[in-house]
From TrEMBL:
Keywords: Antioxidant, Secreted. GO terms for cellular component: extracellular region. It is an enzyme of class 1 (oxidoreductase). Residues 174-198 are annotated as: Disordered. Residues 36-152 form the Superoxide dismutase copper/zinc binding domain. This is superoxide dismutase. Belongs to the Cu-Zn superoxide dismutase family. Its main location: other.
Amino acid sequence: AKPATGQLGDAVQVLDNPQGAAYTAVIPAGKFGTMRGTVTAVATQGNGTQFNINFSGLPSTGGPFLYHIHVNPIPSNGSCASTLAHLDPYIRGEATPCVPEFPETCQVGDLSGKHGKPNATTFNATYIDPYVSLIDGQGAFFGNRSFVIHLADKTRIACANFFPIDNLPSEPSASGFPYGPSNSSSTTAPTFSVPVPP
């Protein structure tokens, strides 16, 4: 049987993401202990968004880990708690776990629920998610939001804000949040390659 879905129904596939749109979020060295990570998202031609996920330095215990797109960006104080809940424009909620065989019924921002949970100190994955949007103004748009990594018990252990790849800040420091364009001094052309943390 199909699992419960959102109060507004199943998530709708996004088929018209702007070609070349690309966003990335980078966990800065030293901000969250040994954890580093990059989430890069690029519009595909008509069938969603390709994600490239690279995490390293995850704890040796506490998994399987969860990671989600959250509603709010990280504020200047760097608090992962301030990102609020998962991106959930169809009002599904978290009470019922996501069933990966029915991704349209999951919260839009529940990337690990739909595509697999990290269960080691490193994690690399590439997949296409048809339900997130790269169109500013849509409920499923995530380009002005954040992602958060959690322990299995949902404790938040790391987070980073998304930025357009053509408007990336220079290498983020361990102390500066939210790495906005105001402190940017470099730009990078959109690409499908994944930035690898040093």
